[in-house]
C-alpha cells in the first residue's frame, strides 16, 4: 500500500477519535458516556500492542506462556469486589488522581514517597511507551509497499508526527480541569471505542486465519503438530517452568492494580462503585475473547511464513501474504488503536503524577502561594501539558536510540517487574496499619535496585557491550552475584528471577522497617483510615488527629489561590454546614485542615496539599499514644453520640407533643373562657331588658294601658329568649360532651322534612316566603327524628331570617348517594359573608366579631346542628361555591 | 330641655330607657348602631349619649372616639352602658374618654340619678 494513502487513513482515523472525544466531552451527561460498559471497555487499555502483536510472537516461539499475562488479571478479578472497592472509595474521598498520590497519602502525605513512586513509574513506563511507538513504526513499514519512501530522520518519520498528535490529544482532553481527580470522559470514551475496534479486528483476523486460510482449529493443530518445535512450545517444561508461570501470573496480577494507566482507568475514572459488578465478568470475558485465536494465528504463521520474519507481526503478515490488503489494513488499525489507547492513558496518568507528585511539590509551591487563582490553574495545566509532551518525546527518542533490539514482550515484562515494586507498600499498606513511610521508601528503592541489577543492567550490557563477563561470571566474579542467577537460583527466566528477588527483598525490608520504625502520628492516622476503610466515614469525621494553631482566614487564602474566591466560598460554606461550624469561627480545627487538604489534593497532589496547608497551620506533634487514644475515643464518642442523638430525638418529639398538648389545652381554656364570657353576655341582655321593663312598670302608675301591656309583652319575649338560650346551652353541652343518647330509628326522611317545614310554615307564610320541598322518594334512613327536626328547623329558620319577605324562596332537596343521604337547604337571601365561612359552625360564631355583630337568635343553632349531625356520623357544611344565597348541606349515613 | 341620645340595638331595652327619660323631661333620640348615632349626634348635639358597646357595624368604642374627635360635640357627655363588666373593658372605656361606665343589667332609677348628676 502506498504510504501516503496509509497516512491519510491514519489521519482520518485520528480525526475520528478526536471527534469522539469532543462529542463525549460535550455530552458528558449522556447515557452513552456514563455507563458501566464504557468503564469495562476502558479497563481493556490493558491490552496494548504487546497483546495485539506480542502475544502471537510469544505463542509462536514459546507456546501458551503468553497466557500468563492475562491469567493474573483474571485471577485478581474476584478480589476486585473487596480490594478495588476499597481503593476506589478511599480515592474518591480524598480526590486521589494517581497511584503515586494514593501511596503517598497512605503514608501520611509523604512528599518523597509520592515522588519516588512517580519516578519508578516513569522509569518503568516510558520504555514501554516507546515500544508502542516502535510497534506503530514497524507495522507501518510492513503495510506500506517496499517501494515506498523510508524515513531517514526524525522530521520525516511519520511515527514522530503520530506521537506528537497523540500528545496534542492528551494535552487537549486530559487537562481540561485543574482537578486531576476529575473524570476525562472524552478520553475514556475513545479508549472504549478503541477497545471494541481492536478486539473486533483481532477476532476478524483470527477467524480469517483459522477458518479461511485453514480448515478450522483441528486442521491447524494437526498440521502444526508436525512442526519440529511443536512439543517444545506446547508442553509444560517441568517444575522450573511452573515457577516461571507462577511468577509471571503474580506479575500481571500486580500490574492490573499498579500500572499507572490501569489505576487511572479503574480508580480515577470510576464513576460508580457498582460498575465493578459488571467489570468482574465482562473484563475476563474480554481478555478471553482476545486470546482465543492467538495460538492458532501463531501456528498458522509458523506453518505459512519463514523464520526470517518477525513473529510478532504474523497478524499483519498472514493477510499480506495472501494479498488481502484490506484485512491487513484492519489489523493495522486495530493495533494502532491498542497503541493509541495505551499511550494516551499512560501519558495522562504519568503527567498527572509528574506534575502533582514531582514538579509541584518540589519547587512550585512558593510560586503558587504568591500568585492568583487563574494563573495558578494555568500553571498547573501547563505543567501537565509540558509533562505530556516531554514524556512522549522522551519515549520517542528512547525508541529511536535503543529499542531496535527489543521485543514487545520483554520490555513489557521488564516494566511490569519495575512497577511490581510498588506492590508491598500498596497491598500490605491497605491491610496492615503498621506499614510506615520509611519502610515503604526503603523497600521500593531496594526492590528497584535489585531489578536494575538482575534485569536491566545485564540487558543493557547485552545490547551495548560485547563483554558479557558481568553477566556470565557475576559482579567481582562472585558466583553468587550472577545477575541472572542470584544466590544460585538459576532455573528461572530472567524476568521471573528478577521479580522473585526484588519482591523478596522489597517485602522483607518493608516489613522489617515497618516493625522497627512506627512512623509518625500522621502516618498512623492515615494508615488507620486506609486499613479500616469500612468505618471510614465515621473515622474521617473525627479521626484526623491534628494539634496546633491555624486560622480559618489563612486557610481560606491558600484555598483561594487554587480554587478562586467563588469555589472557596462555596466549599467553606459546605464545610460549615456539614460540620455545623459557625461562620464566625476564627480558629481552624482538624476537620477544616483535613477538608482543605482534600480540596487541594485533586489539583496539586496530596503531599503538596499537606505542605501548603502546613505552611499556614502551626502544627504540633502528637504522640502515638494520643493518636491511638483519640482514634479509640472517636469511635466510642461516635457510638455515644449516636445513642445520645437518638435519645435527644425522642425527647424532642416528646417535648413537641407536650407543647402541642399544652397549647391545645390553653386554646381550649381560652375557648372555654370566651364561651362563658359570651354566655354571660347573652344572658345579660334579656335580663337587662326584663329588669328595666319591670322597673318602669313598677313606677308607671300613670302609664297608659296600651304601653303597659307592651312592656309586659317585652318581658315575656325576653323571658322566652332567656329560657331558649339556657335550653340551647345545656343542649349543646349535652351533645358535645357525648352524654346525649340518640334515639335512632328508621324514619322516612321526606316525612321528617315535611314536619320541619310545617313547623316554620306559619312564619314563612306571614313573611310571604315560599318553601319548596323537592322529593317524592321514600328514602328510609336511621336517625333520631327529634334531633333531625332540630337541625332542619334551625337551617330553615336561618333561611327565613336572611331572605327578603315576599321574594324569598327556600328549597329543600334530598339526594340519595351510595352510602349516605345528602340533604340540601338553600335560599335566595343575602348569603353568608365569605369571611364567616370558617366560623359559622362555631359556638356564638359572632364572637370573632364580638363588638360588631349581635347574635341572631341564640348564636348556637349551627353549633348544635353540627354536633347533632356529627353524632350521627354525618357531615355538615356550607357550600362555598353557591352565590345566589346560602346553601347548607348535610349528610347522614344510610 | 336636656337632650339624650340612646344608642342600643336591643329594642326592648331602648323602649324602657326612652320611656324613662321622656318622663324625666329629656328630649330623647334613638340610634340602633354607631353610624346612626353619630349622624344624630352631629345633627342634634345631645347633652349626653348612652352608648352600648356591642352593636352591629360601628361598635361603641369606635363611636365614642368619633364623638370625642368632633369639636361640635365637645360638651357632650358619653356614658357607656354595656354588659361587658370585666375590669379591662371598663378601663378601656374610660381611657377612651367615656364620662361614666355603667354595666348591664342596670337599675333604671340609679341610671337616671347618675345621668342627672353628670349633667349638673
How would you describe this structure to a colleague?
The complex is a heterodimer of chains A (894) and B (120). Chain A is mainly alpha-helical and 894 residues long. Helices cover 70% and strands 5% of the residues of chain A. Chain A has five domains: 3-415, Up-down Bundle (Sodium/glucose cotransporter), CATH 1.20.1730; 437-517, no CATH class; 544-622, no CATH class; 639-736, Helix Hairpins; 742-893, Heat Shock Protein 90 (2-Layer Sandwich), CATH 3.30.565. In chain A, strand 6 and strand 7 form a beta hairpin. Chain A is elongated and about 155 Å long. Chain B has 120 residues and is of the alpha/beta class. A five-stranded parallel β-sheet of chain B has the order 2-1-3-4-5, sandwiched between helices. Chain B has one domain (3-115): Response regulator (Rossmann fold), CATH 3.40.50. The interface between A and B is medium-sized, with 27 and 26 residues.
Sum this structure up briefly.
The complex is a heterodimer of chains A (894) and B (120). With 894 residues, chain A is mainly α. Helix content of chain A is 70%, strand content 5%.
What's the arrangement of secondary structure elements?
The complex is a heterodimer of chains A (894) and B (120).
Chain A: H1 3-26, H2 36-43, H3 49-62, H4 68-94, H5 99-106, H6 111-143, H7 158-174, H8 185-213, H9 216-224, H10 230-234, H11 238-258, H12 260-268, H13 275-292, H14 294-304, H15 314-321, H16 325-370, H17 373-402, H18 408-419, H19 423-431, H20 437-464, H21 469-473, H22 494-516, H23 521-531, H24 536-542, E1 547-550, H25 552-579, H26 590-604, H27 606-616, E2 617-620, H28 624-699, H29 705-737, E3 745-748, H30 749-767, E4 770-774, E5 780-783, H31 785-802, E6 809-816, E7 820-827, H32 861-871, E8 875-878, E9 887-893
Parallel strand pairs in A: 4-6
Antiparallel strand pairs in A: 1-2, 3-5, 6-7, 7-9, 8-9
Chain B: E1 3-7, H1 11-23, E2 27-31, H2 34-44, E3 48-51, H3 60-68, E4 77-82, H4 87-95, E5 100-103, H5 108-119
Parallel strand pairs in B: 1-2, 1-3, 3-4, 4-5
Amino acid at each position: 500500500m502506498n504510504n501516503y494513502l496509509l497516512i491519510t487513513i491514519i489521519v482520518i482515523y485520528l480525526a475520528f477519535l478526536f471527534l469522539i472525544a469532543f462529542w463525549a466531552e460535550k455530552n458528558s451527561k449522556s447515557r452513552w458516556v456514563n455507563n458501566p460498559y464504557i468503564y469495562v471497555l476502558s479497563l481493556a487499555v490493558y491490552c496494548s500492542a504487546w497483546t495485539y502483536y506480542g502475544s502471537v510472537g510469544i505463542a509462536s516461539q514459546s507456546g501458551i506462556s503468553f497466557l500468563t499475562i492475562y491469567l493474573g488479571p483474571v485471577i485478581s478479578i474476584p478480589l476486585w469486589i473487596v480490594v478495588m472497592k476499597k481503593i476506589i472509595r478511599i480515592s474518591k474521598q480524598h480526590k486521589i488522581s494517581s497511584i503515586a498520590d494514593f501511596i503517598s497519602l497512605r503514608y501520611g502525605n509523604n512528599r518523597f514517597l509520592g515522588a519516588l513512586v512517580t519516578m519508578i513509574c516513569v522509569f518503568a513506563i516510558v520504555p514501554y511507551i516507546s515500544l508502542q511507538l516502535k510497534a506503530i513504526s514497524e507495522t507501518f513499514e510492513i503495510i506500506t509497499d517496499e517501494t515506498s519512501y523510508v524515513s531517514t530522520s526524525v522530521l520525516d518519520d511519520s511515527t514522530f508526527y503520530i506521537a506528537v498528535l497523540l500528545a496534542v490529544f492528551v494535552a487537549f482532553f486530559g487537562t481540561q480541569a485543574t482537578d486531576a481527580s476529575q473524570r476525562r470522559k472524552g478520553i475514556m470514551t475513545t479508549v472504549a471505542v478503541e477497545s471494541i475496534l481492536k478486539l473486533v479486528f483481532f477476532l476478524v483476523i483470527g477467524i480469517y486465519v483459522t477458518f479461511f486460510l485453514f480448515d478450522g482449529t483441528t486442521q491447524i493443530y494437526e498440521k502444526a503438530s508436525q512442526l519440529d518445535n511443536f512439543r517444545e512450545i506446547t508442553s509444560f517444561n517441568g517444575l522450573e517452568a511452573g515457577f516461571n508461570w507462577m511468577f509471571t501470573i503474580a506479575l500481571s496480577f500486580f500490574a492490573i492494580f499498579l500500572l499507572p494507566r490501569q489505576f487511572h482507568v479503574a480508580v480515577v475514572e470510576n464513576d460508580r462503585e457498582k460498575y465493578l459488578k459488571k467489570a468482574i465478568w465482562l473484563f475476563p470475558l474480554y481478555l478471553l475473547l482476545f486470546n482465543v485465536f492467538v495460538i492458532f494465528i501463531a501456528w498458522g504463521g509458523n506453518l505459512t511464513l519463514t523464520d526470517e520474519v518477525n513473529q510478532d507481526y504474523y497478524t499483519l503478515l498472514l493477510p499480506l501474504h495472501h494479498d488481502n490488503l484490506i484485512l491487513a489494513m484492519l489489523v493495522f488499525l486495530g493495533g494502532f488503536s491498542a497503541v493509541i489507547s495505551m499511550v494516551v492513558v499512560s501519558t495522562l496518568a504519568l503527567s498527572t503524577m509528574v506534575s502533582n507528585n514531582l514538579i509541584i511539590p518540589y519547587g512550585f509551591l512558593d510560586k503558587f502561594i504568591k500568585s492568583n487563582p487563574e494563573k495558578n490553574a494555568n500553571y498547573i495545566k501547563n505543567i501537565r501539558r509540558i509533562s505530556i509532551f516531554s514524556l512522549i518525546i522522551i519515549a520517542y527518542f528512547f525508541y529511536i536510540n535503543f529499542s531496535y533490539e527489543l521485543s514487545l514482550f520483554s520490555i513489557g515484562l521488564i516494566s511490569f517487574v519495575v512497577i511490581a515494586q510498588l506492590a508491598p507498600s500498596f497491598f500490605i499498606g491497605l491491610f496492615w496499619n503498621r506499614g510506615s513511610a520509611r519502610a515503604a521508601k526503603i523497600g521500593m528503592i531496594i526492590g528497584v535496585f535489585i531489578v536494575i541489577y538482575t534485569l536491566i543492567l545485564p540487558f543493557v550490557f547485552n545490547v551495548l557491550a560485547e563483554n558479557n563477563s558481568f553477566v556470565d561470571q557475576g559482579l567481582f566474579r562472585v558466583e553468587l552475584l550472577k545477575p541472572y542467577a542470584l544466590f544460585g537460583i538459576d532455573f528461572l527466566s530472567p524476568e521471573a528471577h528478577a521479580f522473585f528477588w526484588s519482591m523478596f527483598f522489597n517485602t522483607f525490608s518493608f516489613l522489617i522497617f515497618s516493625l522497627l520504625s512506627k512512623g509518625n502520628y500522621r502516618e498512623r492516622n492515615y494508615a488507620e483510615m486506609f486499613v479500616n476503610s469500612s468505618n471510614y466515614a465515621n473515622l474521617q469525621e473525627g479521626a484526623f488527629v491534628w494539634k496546633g494553631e491555624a486560622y480559618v482566614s489563612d486557610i481560606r487564602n491558600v484555598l483561594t489561590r487554587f480554587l478562586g474566591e467563588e469555589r472557596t466560598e462555596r466549599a467553606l460554606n459546605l464545610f460549615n454546614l456539614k460540620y455545623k461550624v459557625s461562620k464566625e469561627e476564627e480558629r481552624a480545627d482538624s476537620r477544616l485542615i483535613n477538608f482543605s487538604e482534600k480540596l487541594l489534593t485533586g489539583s496539586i497532589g496530596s503531599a503538596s496539599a499537606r505542605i501548603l496547608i502546613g505552611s499556614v497551620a502551626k502544627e504540633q506533634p502528637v504522640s502515638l499514644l494520643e493518636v491511638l487514644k483519640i482514634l479509640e475515643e472517636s469511635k466510642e464518642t461516635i457510638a455515644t453520640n449516636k445513642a445520645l442523638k437518638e435519645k435527644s430525638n425522642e425527647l424532642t418529639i416528646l417535648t413537641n407533643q407536650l407543647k402541642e398538648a399544652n397549647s391545645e389545652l390553653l386554646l381550649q381554656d381560652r375557648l372555654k373562657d370566651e364561651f362563658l364570657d359570651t354566655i354571660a353576655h347573652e344572658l345579660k341582655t334579656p335580663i337587662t331588658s326584663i329588669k328595666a321593663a319591670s322597673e318602669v312598670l313598677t313606677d308607671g302608675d300613670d302609664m297608659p294601658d296600651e304601653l303597659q301591656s307592651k312592656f309586659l309583652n317585652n318581658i315575656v319575649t325576653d323571658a322566652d329568649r332567656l329560657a331558649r338560650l339556657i335550653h340551647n346551652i345545656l343542649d349543646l353541652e349535652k351533645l358535645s360532651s357525648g352524654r346525649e343518647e340518640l334515639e335512632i330509628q328508621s324514619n322516612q326522611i321526606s316525612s321528617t322534612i315535611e314536619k320541619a317545614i310545617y313547623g316554620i310554615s306559619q312564619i314563612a307564610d306571614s313573611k310571604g316566603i315560599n318553601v319548596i320541598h323537592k322529593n317524592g322518594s321514600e328514602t328510609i334512613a336511621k336517625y333520631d327524628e327529634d334531633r333531625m327536626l332540630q337541625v332542619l328547623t334551625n337551617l330553615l329558620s336561618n333561611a327565613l331570617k336572611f331572605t327578603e319577605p315576599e321574594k324569598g324562596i327556600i328549597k329543600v332537596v334530598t339526594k340519595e348517594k351510595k352510602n349516605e343521604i345528602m340533604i340540601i337547604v338553600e335560599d335566595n337571601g343575602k348569603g353568608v359573608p365569605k369571611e364567616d365561612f370558617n366560623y359559622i359552625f362555631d359556638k356564638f360564631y359572632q364572637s370573632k366579631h364580638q363588638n360588631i355583630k349581635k347574635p341572631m337568635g341564640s348564636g348556637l343553632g349551627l353549633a348544635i346542628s353540627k354536633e347533632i349531625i356529627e353524632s350521627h356520623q354525618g357531615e355538615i357544611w356550607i357550600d362555598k361555591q353557591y352565590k345566589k344565597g346560602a346553601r347548607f348541606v348535610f349528610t347522614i349515613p344510610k | 330641655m336636656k337632650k339624650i341620645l340612646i344608642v342600643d340595638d336591643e329594642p326592648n331595652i331602648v323602649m324602657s330607657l326612652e320611656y324613662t327619660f321622656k318622663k324625666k323631661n329629656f328630649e330623647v333620640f334613638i340610634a340602633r348602631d354607631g353610624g346612626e348615632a353619630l349622624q344624630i349626634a352631629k345633627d342634634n348635639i345631645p347633652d349626653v349619649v348612652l352608648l352600648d358597646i356591642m352593636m352591629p357595624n360601628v361598635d361603641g368604642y369606635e363611636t365614642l372616639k368619633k364623638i370625642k374627635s368632633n369639636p361640635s360635640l365637645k360638651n357632650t357627655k358619653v356614658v357607656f352602658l354595656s354588659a361587658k363588666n370585666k375590669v379591662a373593658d371598663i378601663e378601656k372605656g374610660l381611657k377612651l374618654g367615656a364620662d361614666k361606665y355603667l354595666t348591664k343589667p342596670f337599675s333604671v332609677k340609679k341610671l337616671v340619678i347618675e345621668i342627672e348628676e353628670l349633667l349638673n
